[in-house]
Task: structure prediction
Amino acid sequence: MSKENKTFGQVMASYNKGFWVASFMELFERWAWYGLFAVLALYLTGSTDEGALGFSHTEKGQIMGIVTAILYLLPLFTGVIADKIGYKLSLIIAYLMLMSGYYFMGEVSSYTSVFLVFLYVAVGAAMFKPVASAIVTKNTDKSNSTLGFGIFYMMVNIGGFIGPAFSSTLRTQYGWKIVFIQAAAVIFINLLIVLFFYKEKDRVKTDEGLVQAIKNSLSNIKEAVMDIRLTVLLVIMVGFWTMFNQLFYTLPTFIDDWINTAALHDSIASVSPALASFMSGGGKSINPEMLINIDAGAIILLQMLVSYFVLKMRHVSAMITGFIIAAIGIGLTFYTGNGLYTILGIIIFAIGEMMTNPTFSSFIALISPKGKEALYMGTYFLPVFAGNFFTTFVSGNLYQAWSDKLSLLQREMARRNISMPEIGDSFSKNDYFELASQKLQMTQNEMTQFVWDTYQPNRIWYVIVGIGVVTILALFFYDRLVIRPRERK
Result:
């Protein structure tokens, strides 16, 4: 029976055990990763009296940006290693590293130790990342691969939604340590799956050594990026990923600093008490990670509809439209201190993301010379790597200078010559806010509004949206000068 004549049920029935094992391992790995990553900015910069680490935003930006950038560069090497030692062994190594890494991240507290342990986690994640998608590739064919990868990436978003939802409730009820234990426990489930349910297909073994295989991989990447059309596209996409990353790196702390999530909780509770309780983890204010999680929830609900709409558009037109929508959405989340506008902005951003991100892979394939599609697709992670690296400075240095509530309040107290204790082991960030509100004779909400009005921390949206605008213009001219002439030929 041809691909065109197969019913949906027949295609679903065609997937073998290896496909479903890989898909569920992806779900659990994303559960663990996003269960931690969605709250990591809050943990790193939160007040020490709540069990967080109290780092500066510059330190947060370095830990999250540099380490995650390295994670997306490593698959150039770990994919080759997996091919040489086998997928099953690679997965076992990855899961052992992730389990121990996630657990020990909750046990260390200095900047250097957190950086190094998170880097260890990133190496484990990089061991996993190319293997799961490779297993799906090997267990699908032309008749079912399109839907197969759709299911696979749906698992990504399901895991990305469940993880933060669990972390939100767990940290509210039991504190920060349980978040890291949860991540380790979920990876342990994956370890059981790979040990008892995954059977590796016969590997094609070659005489090529590991070092030579890595050299060949790098040589292939070099060959691809020598194509100026591809290189320009990859550089343009760095802008998208830099803007996209603000959702996880910067927005959670912006919400924590400036959005009255207690008032937002009451507004949602007036419509649905159950939804308010879910989004607050059983507390009295909406947790920032649950607002960020609206992005993954929207993708789960709307991706199929958006993808169907995008099918009717040119690839580059869909990407440009997606960029514009995403820039409007991310700008709205930082422009106002109103939580309802934050929710609206995240939903708008998610629609733009759904139009852009899946289309990028197809777009690379579109400009690839015939027979070199796989070679060109190997460059996919390069702009993701660079985008994470540049996010370090926006989420770290720039946020510290322009938008960090503590830094701006300290500036105001110094301007008024009001002496305040140094933040340390015996005087936390929350203690500082409490004492400052007393000395300023304001409630904490009044103090937050005063600092907002005086220093305009929302102006960071100029930079974030500006990156999006430059990306949109660059892609527009790329379309005019490169893609349209190619299409006319």
